[in-house]
Amino acid sequence: xPIWEPQEECMSRDELQQLQLERLQATLNRVYxxxxxxxxxxxxxxxxxxxDLTDLRDIRRLPFTTARDVSDSYPYEMFAxxxxxxxxxxxxSGVMVNPRVVGYTRQDLKxxxxxxxxxxxxxxxxQDDVIQVTFGYGLLTGGLGIHYGAERIGASVxxxxxxxxxxxxxxxxDFRTTVLVSTPSYALVIADKVEAVGMDPKRLSLRxxxxxxxxxxxxxxKEIEERLFVKATDNYGISEVMGPGVAGECLEQQGMHxxxxxxxxxxxDPETGQVLEPGREGELVITxxxxxxxxxxxxxxxxxxxxxxxxxxxxxxxHRLGRIRGRSDDVVVIKGINxxxxxxGDILEEIKGERPVYQLAATRRGHQDQLEIRVExxxxxxxxxxxxxxxxxxxxxxxxxNFIGITPRIKLVxxxxxxRVGGVVxxxxxxxxxxxxxxxxxx
Length: 443
Ligand SMILES: [Zn+2]
What we know:
Elements: H1 6-9, H2 13-34, H3 36-44, H4 49-52, H5 67-72, E1 86-91, E2 101-105, H6 106-122, E3 130-133, H7 142-153, E4 156-158, H8 165-174, E5 179-182, H9 184-196, E6 208-211, H10 218-228, E7 231-238, E8 243-249, E9 256-258, E10 263-268, E11 282-288, E12 299-305, E13 307-308, E14 320-321, E15 326-327, E16 332-334, E17 337-339, H11 341-352, E18 358-365, E19 368-376, H12 386-404, E20 409-413, E21 420-421, E22 424-425, E23 428-430
Parallel strand pairs: 3-4, 3-5, 5-6, 6-7, 18-23, 19-20
Antiparallel strand pairs: 1-2, 7-8, 8-9, 9-14, 10-11, 11-12, 12-15, 13-14, 16-17, 18-19, 21-22
Helix pairs in contact: 2-3, 6-7, 8-9, 9-10, 11-12
The chain binds zinc ion.
């Protein structure tokens, strides 16, 4: 599969770091001059971009920018160019608080479509493809972001936008769609609908599914691939940073290449803000390196993942983001250890290749926090034989202990018995404030 911009995507790490440093310097200078929010903050810490940034690590001296900061700057306070130079505006959906508004210059749009072209190429898309975009076309960045990147490649774009699944699959069949762009859960809704109307998915022309927009799992990928006869890739984007095109998987399907010539990424401990070593899991923080209208410095994405520096067989030298594991707001602290409830599901899923329905509960005995994992019994996961059940529970306990360093109590519960909100099981319940010492015995 051709690489869209081999000179950039395969540059040496030395070359890349030099470029990142130059671009970071230019970005910090620009926000210092043009954005009062950053100028005020830099002055408070006596940070002068032209003197105080000599190494990429110097950025760690600067404070984080949060979603709240962007909301508070509603609508245009954080723009680094006058509005007459802005040719497009996007915005997050916001009801209770001000939405987060971002802008793009003509040059920003050019870069954006190019970066999306890179990730689409990496995922198999060429000018021969017919690409159906089921993301919303509106103030959110998903639809238009993918759209212009696909046009840049020269693919034929079907801007079907969200919903009306029956119409989507009719278009998919009649227009001979080869690439579906969708959230992973909507790809499965489409698979259900294809089956429900008695259509044979093998007779569709689909080859690839570009997934983005929500955390998903390997088993969902497998299901999408098997039911729609496609190769599915994982992609990452966030409006405050740009939109789709920030990072995307190549056909190796081993993590999403981050467009490092345009984005400087750090992984931090969401509790302490400390920068973590490569490979560790934490909150993704991004600094834009070439955005004109809306640069962000150390933006806390709230997304939990890790960065992997090992080389990829595809030849691209950009480091890869691991799967997004959830939101940092979802992190719960048990016995002083950060636990991500979704991550526990990943571990349990690895054991039998099936994600069980489960719930974490923090309880307290005396002054000691306890972690309990309640797992609903299913035919596939648990056999009738007591001994097999016990073996599986032991494996689960050991795997989770190895991963998080806390030994949980695994409790098997009846199917359908876990508390559901809107049909979805709450992954975490905190019972530590309730009376202690009344918990029943191991299941
Ligand atoms: Zn690769």
